[in-house]
Design a protein that fits this description.
Keywords: Repeat. Helix content is 62%, strand content 3%. With 1104 residues, it is mainly alpha-helical. The longest helix has 14 residues, at 310-323.
Amino acid sequence: MCSSGLLPNLVTYSILLDGFWKHGHLDEALKLLKSMQEKKLEPDIVFYTILIEGMFIAGRLEVAKELFSRLFVDVIRPTAHTYSVMIKGLIKEGLPDEAYKLFRKMEDDGFTPDSCAYNVIIQGFLQIRDSSTAIQLIDEMVGKGFSPDSSTFQMLLVLESHDEIISRFMRGSSLETPSGLENLSSSASKEVRNKQSEIPQLFNLTMMMLTRKSAFRATASDSRVLQQHMEMGIFPSSFLFFNHHHISTSACTEKPSLPKNNGGFVSNNSTDINIDDAIASFYRMVRMNQRPSAVEFGKFFGSFAKKKQYSTVVSLCNHMDFVGVSHDVYSLSALINCLCRLNHVDFAVSILGKMVKLGIQPNVITFNTLLNGLCKGGKVKEAEELFNLMVRRGHGPDVISYNTIINGLCKTGNKGMAVHVFKKMEQHACKPDVVTYNTIIDSLCNLGQLNEATRLFKEMVGKDAMPDTVTFNILVDGLCKEGMVSEARCVFDIMPEKGVEPDVITYNALTNGLCNEGKIKDAVELFNEMVRRGHEPDVISYNTLINGLCKTGNTSMAVHVFKKMEQHACKPDVVTYNTIIDSLCKDRLVNDAMEFLSEMLDRGIQPDVVTYNSIVHGFCNLGQLNEATRLFKEMVGKDVMPDTVTFNILVDGLCKEGMVSEARRVFETMPEKGVEPNVYTYNALMDGYCLRREMNEAKKVFEIMVRNGCAPDVHSYNILINGYCKSRRMEEAKSLLAEMSHKALPPDTVTYNTLMQALCRYGRPKEALNLFKEMCSYGLLPSLVTYSIFLDGFCKHGHLDEALKLLKAMQEKKLEPNIVLYNILIEGMFIAGKLVVAEELFSRLFVDGIQPTLQTYSVMIKGLLKEGLSDEAYKLFRKMEDDGFLPDSCSYNVIIQGFLQNRDSSTAVQFIDEMVGKGFSADSSTFQMLLDLESHDEIISRFLRGSSLACDVPGIKRLLPSQWRESKFFDNIYELVGVPVVTVQLRYNGWVTELQDLERSRQLRQASGLDNLLYTPDADFSCFADLALTSPEDYYIEGQGSLLQCVLTPGDPYMSLTNDKIIERVSKQDIEISLLGKLCSSSFQSSVARFMSDQGFDAWTLEL
């Protein structure tokens, strides 16, 4: 511009200045001012006002004040707007006294405050809660003929202490309740009297200001302010309202011109009403010399009610009273409707009283309106009283009256009374309609009374009250929720016959029912049918199908549907994501779940506590407690407060990993977070202690639970009983069973199974049998687990006849035994030498269609070999392969041991070659048999081609084939001399060789560490191993940690020591080499074995 020779003027500079301060570039604005002055272009008052306002907005108070002072130095006359900007800025900066002084100085300087100035300073004082000054200024403003703007009104409404201000404008009035209505609602009358004592004059003041100078045109914002007055309970001196079922409440979004028929007033037939013009029309009606009748006013209010302008109706009715226009039944009914819509039912009741007092007879619409308001407000008892009053006064209730009261009764759970009213309808010549039937049927379905609901549905059809889509939706949903999906499908299929088209809600209900029954294929077909028929699935449709797929293990298909959902422009919600995330976590795909969590956040969908619970649970199930804890902290950091489920997941996860101390700390923080532990929390913690055999601590948790008022359930007792049983504390376990009976808490099958299994294991089968009889006497049916416990006990203790009787008893009770029971029974028969019975049982498997397992074949092969039937055993081994069961290490060891035992070395060699070729190794029993066999050279040489072996010097001399001595390397072995060896076994409450993860080393749920033979130069033991890891089938014990075996060579220094001293020294060295320093405790069980020079395995063992 300047380069073109055009000089900027004051307008140009003001434009730039305004832009600078609006975008926060205030330094540039001040530079611009300086530039103007240098160019001898003096800024005007507009320029200064813009700059002062900008400085206040930026919080630069001193600069703003300096600019204002400069005005008088430069002889620039401020305007009323300049003063308003200064006043507003000073109040904003917390300087109300300066603002007030400036306001008064403004008058002294010859600037009479205008409406803007008053509103600015009033808003400022209201903002800082200075109500007394605000009242003074409001009085002054009104006295000068100015009106508050919408912002001032809004601040009055939202101010917490607005009653003090508003009370200054209140005038007294009274509303009396005529006789006959006193008992309708005493509480309602009391509330009305209390409110009437505080009816604000401010409302009337508002109307006066809006109608000043014989002209009125309310703005839409004024209408909204009036509505907010009403919603806060601020009412003028008298009122009206109503919304009958026939009045539409849909709002029109357009504002066309006001129709000019009916003498320039609003016609009740017009639905296109401009609110501003309508209000103006009302005041023209009021000012007319010959006012329209009350009927016209009633129609006018009906038009407002259709537009949901309820507060406006109330205020206009008040103005009718103010100017002396009489009400009739229509205007007062409209007022009752609007008051009910605004949740001021108590005032509506008073208006009914006013109608009676004025001699205006309420009609059925008036009563229906008030009935509806009372029911929606939860005052069903008062609604019943009004209904009875209506009947007593001869106002015959119509179908809407009955529907309203029936609906209210159903929603408050008073189904019996609702049905009673329903039956009374026809007795009073009022025919139920489809709404009546729908209400009753829905209530019956919610109560699970489907037979009654179906009967009523058939009755409905028979009485020509044709069901609509809502009726069918209620019935389909109710049937599905009760598991009667086939019946729901039948109802769905007859809809077209009745001329009713299913909608999305119908399809969703039936899809949900199919999914709950696991009929996912049918659910998908129904979903596709819905789409083919032109019904667009909504988010509930997709969520239902996705949930069904996830519950049936089809997570990948659920993810596919999730993607299709997005392609069809249906946005997933938090429920959709939660369903997918939970299913992924259950499938152990927690990383994929975390990706969905990130996607949620990217899309602005906030995860809730359910989202985090699913993923935390997923990490716990994987044993990743660090990740679970990290996510827990992230959850809290994002203000998603954990609930009881969250804490239960963490406590349970930590306990299962053996981290009971950490679980206890989490448990103890729950009250601090405002979350109370429940029975599941206590049970998880007790189970953690039981897994560690810390029964005293477990019992303490149980006692805390009882002391805190949390009643133990049957699972609580089962946990403790199981813990005592595994700790061999049977008397305490049995005492808990007795305690359950005393506390009227019936034991379940699990309780008895736990006790009976322990008694059988510890050689007390008779006691177990007594418990079995007790269990049956309580009506508890034995399960397959129960029978397997007894079969195992009978077989192991030689009571085979009882075992067979038990099998027969099962079959008589139509309880078919499974393969586990048959395996136990077959093995027991072989042990007892009952070959024929064992073979019959095995043959019966195929007759009964029961699939044998590898263990079944191994049991049979072992038994046949024991009976000397090597050929049959060999054939069965090969048949096992033909039947699709590939032999494992156990199978090979069983058959090799059998042939070695029967001195069939050639077949043993064949199987050893085969086993080694498949990568399997001999177990300790097979090795021992090889060592004890006289002609073992050939066999061992074949085996050692693919194996490795560690043993003592005497043992290796016996083991090596004689032909190997041709090699100098092997011949040197025979020059070795044996030395004394001491072997020490230490059982720890953690995993000694887990050196990477501290938490995993402390848990006892899963073995963890190095499963190799280990060596160290830093201790007296030359080699060591964790037997619980290297030979888990023999040494791993659930709930216990490492069994560290340390080999002390040479053992001479230790041979003369006591076992206690040996254990003390070895455990100390363990700690010194820092293998055990990471463990939470050094508590252990131990044993010591000593091997003297060349005498091999002749040793003694002391259990401590």
